Amino acid sequence: MKLSFYGAAHEVTGTCYQLEVSGGRILVDCGLQQGGDVKNNQGFPFDPAKIDAVVLTHAHIDHSGRLPLLTKLGFEGPIYMTSATYELISIMLEDSAHIQKMDAEWENRKGKRAGKDKAEPLYDFEDVDKVLSLVQPSRYGEKINVLDGLEIMFTDAGHLLGSSSVQMWMQEGDTVRKIVFSGDIGNLGQPIIRDPQYIESADYVVMESTYGDRNHEHPGDYVEDLSEIIDKTLARGGNVIIPSFAIGRTQELLYFFREIKEKGLVKSVPDFKVFVDSPLAGKATRIYDGDLRGYADEETCEILRSGTSPTIFDGLRITESTDESKQLNEDMEPKIIISASGMCEAGRIRHHLKHNLWRQECTVIFVGYQANGTLGRIILEGAKKVRMFGEEIAVKAEIINFRGLSAHADRDGLLKWVGSFSPKPSKVFAVHGDVEVCDIFAESLRQLGHDAVAPYYRSEYDLLTDTVLSEGIKPEVLESVKPLSEASKAVYVDLLSAAERLMAVIRKNEGGANGDLRKFASQISELAEKWKR
């Protein structure tokens, strides 16, 4: 029973954990690394062909975005997720493949003049189709036999439509251990979806810590607060630009805008228009407007029973083509533009920022977490200028961080979630948080009596004996290899990981026979001498 951390360890994106049991190997999530977390999106520190199954907690790209690469490199096993997650990744991975293709074409146009090698997309639409053919859709509360000695069950995590925490029962001989992967734990009181469900027992818990160092600001009234921002901006002739995750956050915003219009809360332009400039968000909105039985909260179910759409209203426009998107910035009528990506790293939002950031009458509202190193975080941290499409753009628009709206539980919410386990788990692994936040949250857990640790990239643990096999690679060591290319960095990280495994073996041999230790030391010295530059 071996647990390895291959992403979202002392970082937020690129979630990927490997669990080895007697019956084989599984991955929990296979996410795309983003912003400052990128180490190597082009490959894996394991052989994809040797993975027997994948369990996906939810559809967000930082959890699902490298599944097509996994199949491209040899994975052929089943992929387990909820039915709603399957619907969402069906459109989300296709969009990601399109972005990979566009990014590669742009790099090639730029790099051709510089004599650079041809860039290839991480994966294509055929790779996405292969992923979808491997999916085994499941329901909340359904116990599933994944491998010999491994059963799983999905529990509503309240983060996104179909999002899950995953309970896993591992058996080796007569020994049974239970591990729970939290996925992303949802905030309380989000529209449309239900609050997170709590789990009562586990031997081990791997839990997110995105907001583990702080609580959300008091949300107040989402509808009133948004109405005030919109009213002021439209009154001065500006646009409201909202970088938003296409799936989940966009639909929540539409839920609020429908209510704002129903109550007539925007006085300056009562019939204001809302443009969702994202084909992906348009497809997702149609899913949210469909059959939500088993996923929606009671208030949304009541709206649906009344024959009203929770996310569709007069004045809503969903743009599809590039030409329609461009026209939004040519038309000077004040409007609301919601566009992806949520962290401003790709997609149409970058064009809208280019055309609106320099206009002081406009407002940019951030409504979700901005990972370290992303354009969204840079703007939020007060940059006076940003560089996009080869241009330097002044930041003069009003910048608002709408902290009250978050799909993640805050510190108190996380502690409430982990506090539901009785007795306390044998160990809690704090993951999916910025470098300092993981450590802070792990310390908070220790103060409450938990045996908690914040693992590093490539940390390895034996869950049968509760021992550390490898401490992994610390963030400051990874930082030192940033100047290398992605491919070169990946190879060097492999070397660092091998060094960590060697140290683990050395520590394990403490107290061994003197003769054996001298021979071991001599072998290491000979190897070091051979590779000394």
Strand content: 15-25%
**Tally of discrete structural domains:** 2
Low-confidence stretches: none
CATH superfamily of the largest domain: Ribonuclease Z/Hydroxyacylglutathione hydrolase-like
CATH architectural grouping of the largest domain: 4-Layer Sandwich
Give the biggest sheet.
Answer: 8 strands, mixed
What is the first-to-last residue Cα distance? Answer: 39 Å
Q: Under the CATH scheme, which class of the largest domain? A: Alpha Beta
Number of strands: 23
Order of strands across the biggest sheet? 6-5-4-3-2-1-22-23
Helical content stands at 25-40%
Number of helices: 16
CATH topology category name of the largest domain: Metallo-beta-lactamase, Chain A
Structure report:
With 533 residues, the chain is α/β, with parallel strands linked by helices. It has two domains: 2-214 and 407-507, Ribonuclease Z/Hydroxyacylglutathione hydrolase-like (Metallo-beta-lactamase, Chain A, 4-Layer Sandwich), CATH 3.60.15.10; 222-401, Rossmann fold, CATH 3.40.50.10890. It is 35% helix and 19% strand. The chain is built from 16 helices and 23 strands. The chain has helices spanning 61-64, 67-72, 83-112, 125-134, 222-235, 249-263, 279-288, 298-305, 322-330, 349-356, 375-380, 411-418, 435-447, 475-479, 486-508, 514-531; strands spanning 2-5, 17-21, 24-28, 53-55, 79-82, 135-138, 144-147, 150-156, 164-172, 175-181, 204-208, 240-243, 274-277, 316-318, 336-339, 363-366, 385-388, 391-394, 398-401, 427-431, 452-453, 460-462, 467-470. The protein has an eight-stranded mixed sheet with strand order 6-5-4-3-2-1-22-23. Strands 7-8-9-10-11-20-21 form a seven-stranded mixed sheet, with helices on one face. Strand 20, helix 13 and strand 21 form a beta-alpha-beta unit. Helix 3 (83-112) runs antiparallel to helix 4 (125-134) and helix 5 (222-235) crosses helix 6. The longest helix is centred in the N-terminal third of the chain and has 30 residues, at 83-112. 45% of the residues are buried. The mean pLDDT is 90.
